[in-house]
Design brief:
Number of helices: 5
Strand content: 15-25%
Oligomer: single chain
Order of helices and strands: HHHEEHEEEHE
Structural class: alpha+beta
Largest sheet: 4 strands, antiparallel
Strand order of the largest sheet: 3-4-5-6
Distance between the termini: 45 Å
Radius of gyration: 15 Å
């Protein structure tokens, strides 16, 4: 399969960041192809590719009628049961970021909030675990600190 154009990748990454920042809450309706094309001044074909990339990463779910819904939040218990490790870090803005890592060290889910509880309760998959990681973000898990 051909590599997606850089513009589509950049827009998909930006939208994933907007979703994870809470601009589009879990379970809410997401932008349509037309809305996305208008907002970013791109063709419908590019819009379709961007939405496909987000769906492939598990950031949005495409419904049978062609609508998009932001992926639902995950529970930390579900992630731990699936063999992921979860770390909490504080951002420069003073917020808390929760990241889940698979055994290979790939970030598979993330969430952010003003408290650890809110960061963990809003975690969403970046990549469905059954398809492996091909995500927007990859980083080794941070080493434990005392």
């Amino acid at each position: 399969m051909a590599k997606p154009p850089a513009k589509a990748q950049k827009i998909a990454w930006e939208l994933a960041q907007r979703i994870h920042a809470g601009e589009f809450p879990p379970g809410s309706w997401f932008l349509s192809e037309r809305q996305l094309a208008k907002e970013y001044d791109i063709s419908r074909g590019t819009s379709r590719r961007v939405l496909g990339m987000l769906a492939d990463e598990g950031v949005i779910i495409r419904t049978p009628d062609g609508s998009q819904v932001c992926s639902p939040a995950l529970s930390v218990a579900e992630l731990l049961k699936a063999g992921h490790s979860v770390t909490l870090t504080q951002t420069a803005e003073g917020r808390v970021k929760a990241d889940a890592f698979d055994a290979g060290g790939c970030v598979t889910a993330t969430g952010e909030g003003p408290t650890p509880e809110q960061a963990m309760s809003g975690m969403r998959y970046l990549s469905p675990p059954q398809t492996g990681h091909a995500g927007f973000e990859q980083a080794p898990p941070p080493s434990p600190t005392s």
